[in-house]
Amino acid sequence: MSVRTYIEETTTELVQKTSWPTWKELQESAVVVLVASAMIAMVIFLMDTGFKKLMELAYQLLNNL
Q1: Helix, strand, coil percent values for the chain (each to nearest 5)
Q2: What DSSP designation does 64 have?
Q3: Which DSSP category does 13 fall into?
Q4: Tell me, what's the pLDDT at 45?
Q5: DSSP conformation class of 53
Q6: Average model confidence (pLDDT) for the chain?
Q7: Please, is 25 exposed, middle or buried when counting C-beta atoms within 10 Å of its C-beta (0-12, 13-18, 19+)?
């Protein structure tokens, strides 16, 4: 297969055979990704904060021995 044939077939595939989402679908998907990312970040933040507090307590108990 020549490079020219490859480029022509790829262009045909992208222009004629691929179904692209509408602008509204893209916006809705972006909102879903944004909300999911924020939720995951919050869960990680809470886990990190909890682990930090737990480790501070453990170190404090070890220092008192």
Answers
A1: 85, 0, 15
A2: T
A3: I
A4: 98
A5: H
A6: 95
A7: exposed
